[in-house]
Amino acid sequence: MAQTATEKRTNIIKRCYNWVLDWADSRWGALALFLLAFAESSFFPIPPDILLIALCLGQPKRAFRFAAICTAGSVIGAIGGYAIGAGLWSVVDHWFIPGIFSQEAFDSVGNLYNEWNFWAVFAAGFTPIPYKIFTIAAGVFSINIPMFILASVIARGTRFTLFAWLIWQFGAPIKTFIDKYFNLLAIAFTALLIGGFMLIKYVL
């Protein structure tokens, strides 16, 4: 029976996932983590978290170093995504839409930037929202670059360092908790954080 387009895409993602995890057992794991974090910020579908977690589980004493490597790669990749949006969008837009994300999602990000700016970048960087849409859209919509970089550093650094700390503190048993609950908790935390600042701005 022929595979549907959805099944083919799912199989490709599964193969990418397994390929990423294979790097955890390689001596080039740290370099692979940096490159994966870089690529994920602009086009690659698999987030670097899975390799970060695997590396931290294998070498807990280096957990925070891996988090720093992952953060650096992700932020530099975000700047690359910004550059794509700012300088190459008219050339590559047909490749990203609908191959990487939809036109509707991209337009929605533009609306979010008009309203939220810093918090839009922070939310995308800290939660499971596809970060690559926001990095490229930031360039297309000419978001303030220093603000964009600052939000990326804070969001990605917080996310990856938190992963590293959890594994450093609790070891392998925390992996199940991260897999099951972290994304929901990240969304809730971000919503509460943004809501608190909005309360200060508009009520107090």
Q: Can you characterise this structure?
A:
The structure is a single chain. The protein has 204 residues and is mainly alpha-helical. The protein has 9 helices and no strands. The protein has one domain (5-202). The longest helix is centred in the middle third of the chain and has 34 residues, at 63-96. The radius of gyration is 17 Å and the shape is globular.
Give keywords.
globular; 204 residues; disordered C terminus; mainly alpha
What would a concise description of this structure say?
The protein is mostly helical.
Residue-averaged pLDDT = 83
> How far apart, in Å, are the first and last alpha carbons?
63 Å
User: Percent range for helical residues?
Assistant: over 70%
| Beta-strand proportion | under 5%
Domain module tally:
1
What is the topological layout?
Elements lengths: L4 H18 L6 H12 L8 H10 L4 H34 L6 H14 L1 H9 L4 H10 L4 H26 L3 H29 L2
Helix pairs in contact: 2-3, 2-4, 3-4, 3-8, 4-7, 4-8, 5-6, 5-7, 6-8, 6-9, 8-9
